[in-house]
């Protein structure tokens, strides 16, 4: 593990975006054996090169990026457009890498989005260092890929270390999914 003292956030985000583009492209192709083998070797080589820059948990660039799913290659990036003390409005566009079938988003990816959005919102506006205790998602209609959607988060109540929150994913006036969750703040000294 090598210690890296300085890093460029914009360059890191660019690398994550390039990786997401690779994931989306992989969902759309059927390369012949020789080309697939050659590209697999190139990806393995790149992975080995990246391992040279591994650092401890507190030094990772992804941790600095926080809310909006930008710093983690499997999280769905979203934009928070309006935030108050107990609610958030944002936007998200799912890509081909998030597709389940027939130009609709895989249900597990929707759950992943809610866990990230609601968890980050609770940590920022409710209680820092909270973890998901439960998350229930109700799928209301098919969620389209490649279209900007609205995402909301609302804190319903805070009871001691517990924060109860809900969220929604909307395509215009159509509710695609709704979520209810409980996040629990870790006791002091735990992470």
Automatic annotation (TrEMBL):
- Record-annotated Thioesterase domain positions: 104-173
UniProt cross-references to Pfam families, sorted A to Z: 4HBT (PF03061)
Specify the taxonomic lineage: Bacteria, Bacillati, Actinomycetota, Actinomycetes, Mycobacteriales
Which key words are in the record? Apoptosis, Cell membrane, Cell projection, Cytoplasm, Fatty acid metabolism, Hydrolase, Lipid metabolism, Membrane, Transit peptide
Query: What is the name listed in the Swiss-Prot or TrEMBL entry for this protein?
Result: Acyl-coenzyme A thioesterase THEM4
Q: Subcellular location, in the record's words?
A: Cell projection, Ruffle membrane; Cytoplasm; Membrane
Could you tell me the membrane topology recorded for this protein?
Peripheral membrane protein
- Top-level division of the source organism's lineage: Bacteria
InterPro entries referenced in this protein's UniProt entry, alphabetically: HotDog_dom_sf, THEM4/THEM5_acyl-CoA_thioest, Thioestr_dom
């Amino acid at each position: 593990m090598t210690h890296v003292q300085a890093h460029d956030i914009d360059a890191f985000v660019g690398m994550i975006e390039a990786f997401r583009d690779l994931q989306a492209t992989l969902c759309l192709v059927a390369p012949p054996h020789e080309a697939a083998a050659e590209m697999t070797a190139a990806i393995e080589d790149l992975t080995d090169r990246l391992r040279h820059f591994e650092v401890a948990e507190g030094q990772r660039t992804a941790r600095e990026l926080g809310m909006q799913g930008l710093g983690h290659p499997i999280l769905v990036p979203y934009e928070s457009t309006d935030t108050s003390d107990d609610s958030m409005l944002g936007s998200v566009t799912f890509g081909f890498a998030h597709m389940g079938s027939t130009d609709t988003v895989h249900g597990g990816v929707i759950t992943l989005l809610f866990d990230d959005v609601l968890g980050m919102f609770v940590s920022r506006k409710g209680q820092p260092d909270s973890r998901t205790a439960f998350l229930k998602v109700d799928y209301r209609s098919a969620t389209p890929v490649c279209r900007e959607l609205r995402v909301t988060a609302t804190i319903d109540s805070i009871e001691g270390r517990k924060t109860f929150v809900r969220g929604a994913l909307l395509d215009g006036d159509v509710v695609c999914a709704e979520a209810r969750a409980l996040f629990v703040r870790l006791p002091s000294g735990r992470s």
